[in-house]
Amino acid sequence: MRISTTAIVLLALGLPAAAANAQASGDEVAELRQMIIEMRDDYERRISELEARLDSAERDAGEAFELAEETAIQQSSGTSAPNTFNPSIGAVLDGGLSDVGGGWEEIPGFQPAGEIGTGESGFSPGEVEINLKANVDARYYGNVTFALASEDGEVEVEFEEAWVQTTALPAGFTVMGGRFFSEAGYLNDFHFHADDFVDRPLPYQAFYGGRYTVDGIQARWVAPTSLLFEVGTELNWGSSFPATASADTSPDSHTLFAKLGGDAGVSNSWQLGLSHVSADAVDREGGGHHAEEGAEEGGAFTGDSDLTVFDFVWKWAPLGNPTVNNFKLQGEYFMRSEDGTFADIPYDGDQEGWYLQGVWQFAPMWRVGLRHDRVDADNGPALAGTELEDPGRSSRRSSVMLDWSPSEFSRLRLQYTDDRVLAESDSVWYLQYIMSIGAHGAHQF
Amino acid sequence: MTRFIAVLVALWLPVSANALNVFSCEPEWAALVEELAGGNVEITEATTAFQDPHMLQARPSLIAGARNADLLICTGADLEIGWLPLLLRRSGNPGIQPGSPGHFMAADHVRRIEIPASIDRSQGDVHPQGNPHIHLHPRNIERVAEALADRLAELDPANAESYRANADNFLQRWSDARTRWEERAEALAGMRLVSHHRSFSYLADWLDLDIVATLELKPGIPPSGAQLSRLLEQLTPAPPAGIIRAPFENEKPAHWLSDRLSIPVIEMAYTVGGADTATDLFGLYEHTISTLEEYRE
User: Fold this and answer.
1) For a Cys-Cys bond, which of A148, B35, B155, B202 suits B137, CB 3.0-4.6 Å?
2) Contact present, B35 and B280 (Cβ < 8 Å)
3) pLDDT for the residue A296
């Protein structure tokens, strides 16, 4: 750039001048040369001045760009809509069509723990779950979930969860208070719509009425280890089965739980859990609606209920990437001992149950699953003739499901269950839809 | 048996107490921390280059890693929306919660592109805060490195000088390398490519590549056969130079289209660890440019 400009200047000014003075003397030539040198120096100086100005202008432009970028970052990293502080809101629609033969509402040998069973044939809009969650402030996180369902033509609002959790306690401690899903059992902490089958496994239905909800507090601690080791306890003042609520300040049931988990190589991860729920029941007539109607229907239990749950889950995905294929195997074993009186008869019974299920994603969006679940009651001869008379057989089922999830937010599922909960076997078909709108759900392990 | 117990004890032992414990959501940020902090840190990596950072679960080992972290470095911009909030709540670690010095989101420090004008789930898994795959533009690495050096210095004042010196050294080498890459990449400008997901938008922005289509019609939604057929029809008159693919993206749609258009599937490293030579950020960029050069028309 510089050289060519100088050359043009020389051509334009220097050469014509030299040509016009072709006959001039040696002095004149020297003088002209001197002039040319001066002119060239002058132009070079001006050119370098211009270049310096250009450099400086470029720098300014660069700074202006950086400034603009800075502003863009500030603008893009925070939205300033009036509802910025609204909690995240999500709703889940969970319903479908079912084809049930005889169906059942109670499991032989078990006091009904809540609203359980196969449900009725036909279409049901099921449950609409609405969830709000956000940080309360720098110390607490809050979560509210309620569910709307239609029961015998009436809309029923179920108050599922309402809890606050600490986020600022040091050293791995977290405390939660309110109404929440207990950590006793792997599946218990999941919402129903996150399950891999339409209905909860039999032990959950028999021992928890679907799930065990705590009205009270939970404290948990994560150990400072590279394997996950977590222990916790829960105190419950609520009436959630197997507990009954008493009107005093001492809790009606308490839970202890421990989890151990980690990775095995890059493709596998696992978790083991052990928990214990111990409840003092007084005149327990069953959970859910049975609590209201139970007095006329059957006996009540008073005594100690001790439940131990062992759970495991193992997940596999090639190189830890579940996008195309993945596999999940999970199982839980429930063991309960109840000691007290049932219908005023001294009673010391044991019940147990387990399930094992595997779910295989064989292609993106598509999964297939198999599950076997069963429960057994050994209530002893004393209760013969009552509703808790030993059925003399296991209540059991085998289910297979196929589901399709075109996105993270929608799922359609077909499930067939060979149902042997009652002595007479039954075939049950379900076609279920689960749709989430609003906030992104959590990828819980 | 003795060995088994020894392994158990080793796993059980608390993680190192001297060094700064860093939890990194993606390999690119682990590599950057390595550049700036080297021997002063213990890094727990949540993902490898072969795992889709969108799709992770808050698995037990990550909860344990987050529990022990002094600094959590993630991309942000909702890339980890499915699992990071849950992980943070389960960690019982106040030092890495949002708003704490130990909570560092790289995307907060750069200018994001592809910020959608409207948001609706019918558009797929869109990110309201723009494209979060920010690490394939060298300017973004520079900006994150500067901010990260400050953050490390804030968290570990005793070593502040060393973090700043490492950052200066890194930025100088990065700037030199960037000049070389840009010289080489002049020949790549305008290269027409198809990508699986919008994983390479910043790279395209930097090198002036022309991403003519994405296999995913909508982000995060696997392409259907019909969508691929339409794409084939659309691209047949002027096939692009190739289909670029990150290691964690499903290879089937890319191969289907590649077979029919007779164009190559270009296996990109995408991030550190995604190819043998992509052992650090320099190696990643080197590999990225060389791979594209190899398939230049």
Assistant:
1) B202
2) yes
3) 47
Pick the closest to residue B141 from B130, B153, B149 (CA basis): B149
CB-CB under 8 Å, A77 with B108: yes
Burial class (CB in 10 A: 0-12, 13-18, 19+), A336: buried
User: Across the interface, do A408 and B220 touch by the CB < 8 Å criterion?
Assistant: yes
pLDDT for position A77? 53
Higher pLDDT, B74 or B129: B74
Please name the residue that has the structure tokens 């959970």: A287
**Where is pLDDT greater, at A18 or A371?**
A371
CB contact under 8 A, A169 and B94: yes
Contacts of B108 in chain A (CB under 8 A): 73, 77
Which of B52, B81, B99 is opposite residue A321, by nearest beta carbon? B52
Question: Mutate which of A65, A321, A367 to disrupt the B interface (most B C-beta within 10 Å)?
Answer: A321
- The answer to whether A326 and A317 are in contact (CB under 8 A) is yes
Owner of token pair 């999941």: A190
| pLDDT number for residue A27 | 80
Confidence of residue A15 (pLDDT cuts 50, 70, 90): very low
- Asked if B13 lies within 8 A of A225 by C-beta distance, the reply is yes
* Vertex A337: Cα angle to A339 and A235 (nearest 5): 90
pLDDT at residue A24 in the model: 52
Q: Which of B14, B110, B111 sits opposite A225 (nearest CB)?
A: B14
CA distance A175 to A140: 10
Could you tell me the CA-to-CA distances from A111 to A72, A236, A246, A292 in Å, in that order?
63, 20, 19, 14
Query: How sure is the predictor about B39, in pLDDT bands with cuts at 50, 70 and 90?
Result: confident
Name the one residue in this structure whose structure tokens are 């608390």: B14
Contact B108, B129 (CB under 8 A): no
Question: Would you tell me how many other CB atoms lie within 10 Å of the CB of residue A384?
Answer: 11
Which domains, ranges and CATH numbers included, belong to chain B?
8-178 (3.40.50.1980), 186-294 (3.40.50.1980)
DSSP letter, residue B58:
B
Contacts of B145 (CB under 8 A, 6+ apart): B32, B35, B36, B167, B170, B171, B174
- Side chain identity, residue A165: Q
- At residue A421, φ and ψ (nearest 5 deg) are -70, -45
Q: Are A135 and B98 within 8 A, CB to CB?
A: yes
pTM: 0.83
**Is B112 touching A (CB cutoff 8 A)?**
yes
Answer whether B147 touches A (CB < 8 Å): no
Strand order in the sheet with B41-45: B41-45, B20-24, B71-74, B103-105
Other residues' Cβ atoms within 10 Å of the Cβ of residue B290: 12
Question: Using one digit for the tens of pLDDT, what is the confidence trace for A232-265?
Answer: 999 999 888 888 888 788 888 999 999 999 999 9
Quickly list DSSP for A91-142: EEEEEEEEE-SS--SS-TTS---SS-S---SEEEEEEEEEEEEEE-SSSEEE
C-alpha distance from residue A48 to each of A1, A54, A58 (Å): 11, 9, 15
Residues A397, A353: contact at Cβ < 8 Å? no
Interface pTM, i.e. ipTM:
0.84
Q: Does B119 touch chain A (CB under 8 A)?
A: no
pLDDT at B11 over 80: no
Q: Where are the beta strands (DSSP E) in A167-267?
A: 173-181, 213-222, 228-236, 253-264
Query: To which H or E segment does residue B183 belong?
Result: helix B160-185
**B60 and A271 in contact by Cβ < 8 A?**
yes
- Structure-token match 């809009």, residue found: A125
Q: How far apart are CA B17 and CA B68, in angstroms?
A: 10
